[in-house]
Design brief:
Largest sheet: none
Number of strands: 0
CATH topology: Ferritin
Strand content: under 5%
Helix content: over 70%
Radius of gyration: 17 Å
Structural class: mainly alpha
Number of domains: 1
Order of helices and strands: HHHHH
Distance between the termini: 52 Å
CATH class: Mainly Alpha
Number of helices: 5
Length: 163
């Protein structure tokens, strides 16, 4: 697709997010299984549920625009997830693996925060207030997840990995 307008760029970025969220949904069960900390498993399980709702929101935006959400594969998220899988395979003890899993999850969150911020702004500029609101809800959730992961890392996981 040629991207010769802000609307086309907006659609392209939204499709990128559909791919990203789908990849995350597929990767999260492995992260949950690899985590040893009960708190981390719970955080990942909770975020898996949130991610499924976020994907539903994106599909709603596409339905409202009479557009297809298909047609894009997010190479950036593929790389971030691949790095997270490397951590799972390389860590030699559970505490370090959990610290690495948090780092991988935060890379995912930071990527999503960046892209959701962009598409929310595009929606606002294009006058798509309903989508802007849905995207803002997701952006807020992503920031909250990042905050929870930071607190978990600082208050327990990273401290345990230091030992």
């Amino acid at each position: 697709m040629q991207v010769d307008s802000l609307k086309k760029l907006y659609l392209d970025e939204l499709r990128d997010l559909v791919s990203s969220e789908s990849q995350i949904i597929n990767a999260m069960p492995k992260m949950i299984q690899a985590a040893s900390s009960k708190e981390l498993k719970n955080a990942f399980n909770e975020h898996l549920d949130v991610t499924k709702r976020q994907l539903d929101r994106l599909k709603e935006i596409f339905r409202n625009m009479n557009e297809s959400p298909e047609g894009k594969s997010c190479a950036g998220m593929e790389g971030i997830i691949r790095e997270g899988q490397e951590i799972i395979g390389q860590a030699t003890n559970s505490e370090v693996k959990d610290a690495g899993l948090i780092a991988a999850a935060q890379r995912i969150e930071h990527y999503e925060i960046a892209v959701y911020g962009v598409v929310r702004t595009y929606a606002e500029i294009l006058g798509d207030e309903d989508s802007r609101d849905l995207l803002q809800n997701t952006l807020d959730e992503e920031k909250e997840t990042d905050k929870k992961l930071t607190e978990l890392a600082v208050n327990s996981i990273n401290v345990e990995a230091r030992k």
